[in-house]
Amino acid sequence: MKTIKLLILLLPLFCFSQQEKIKQLDINLTNYEYSFPVQFLELSNQRQYLKMAYMDIKPDNYNNKNIVLLHGKNFNGAYWETTIKALTKEGFRVIVPDQIGFGKSSKPDNFQYTFQQLTENTKKLLDHLGIEKTTILGHSMGGMLATRFALMYPETTEKLVLENPIGLEDWKLVVPYKPVDWWYESELKQNYQNIKSYQMANYYDGKWNADFQKWAELGAGWTTAPDYARVAWNSALMYDMIFTQPVLYEFKNIKSPTLLIIGTRDKTAIGKPLVAEEVRKTMGNYLELGKKTQKAIPNAKLVEVANTGHLPHIESFDQFIKPLIVFLKS
């Protein structure tokens, strides 16, 4: 009993120690190197000039097929590293943007985040690169963005791939609305231990390894920086975008051949702590949501990845990449 009490007393000190070891990252990740060269596209959005970071990897064995990888809310383009290597090996040109507010891209002081705005920025990048047709792949929040892209630019979207996208259910129907200021205060409290605890519980079912650690540390690096408040504010604005701009009601209008890659253990749903336990149990059930979404999207295929949570391309890479490559080549 004394040992248990001692461990409880020491736990906060251990967490503090872990946080102290996290490398401090500046607001645009200039002191963090991605695995591939990063370029920047200058944008004029909402009366301000911004820079959108992106990686454009064109292999020597280019097969004249392109794919855009859209990151989730808690990540940036860097976490596609292994996916990029596998796709370029097969001859695909891979374009990986950091959306405004993420990664190495600009973090504006004031910005109205909409999926339409982010989609338009992504289309400007493709126009800049001279890409007329491409597969659009989106993970998590990137899945909502990929859906909006396919709806706005069906002539550009050769194929659509959704990897554990959020927004397969309309959370505003069950979660009480919270203003941007509330989300901002919540984001200011983020640190390494909070990020790790959330990801262990919601992404990896209590598991942890070096790959999971790597991406958690990248997200936590901002929380130790002096200008983290601006990152937190942009993040809060994005929560409002996610809650108020659902895309699932328009799944029926998607014209592109679509592949759903769903880690069926996933239980991700934003706002769970804000609802009663009986409601919480109904949220984020990807085993059911994947099947429901397949029926909602015309010409959609579903690949279920068993014993896998929110990040198949990190947790179960082989089960993610094999069906993806088959779909891209079909």
TrEMBL record:
- Which SUPFAM superfamilies has this protein been placed in? alpha/beta-Hydrolases
Q: What is its EC number?
A: 3.7.1.17
Q: Name one GO cellular component term.
A: membrane
Keyword 4Fe-4S tagged:
no
Q: Which UniProt keywords apply?
A: Hydrolase
Q: Start and end of every AB hydrolase-1 domain?
A: 66-315
Keyword Secreted set for record: no
- Report the Pfam families cross-referenced here: Abhydrolase_1 (PF00561)
Gene Ontology molecular function: 4,5-9,10-diseco-3-hydroxy-5,9,17-trioxoandrosta-1(10),2-diene-4-oate hydrolase activity; monoacylglycerol lipase activity
Q: List each coiled-coil range.
A: none
Taxonomic superkingdom: Bacteria
GO BP term (any one)? acylglycerol catabolic process
Which PANTHER family would you find in this protein's record?
HYDROLASE, PUTATIVE (AFU_ORTHOLOGUE AFUA_2G14860)-RELATED, MONOACYLGLYCEROL LIPASE
Full protein name: 4,5:9,10-diseco-3-hydroxy-5,9, 17-trioxoandrosta-1(10),2-diene-4-oate hydrolase
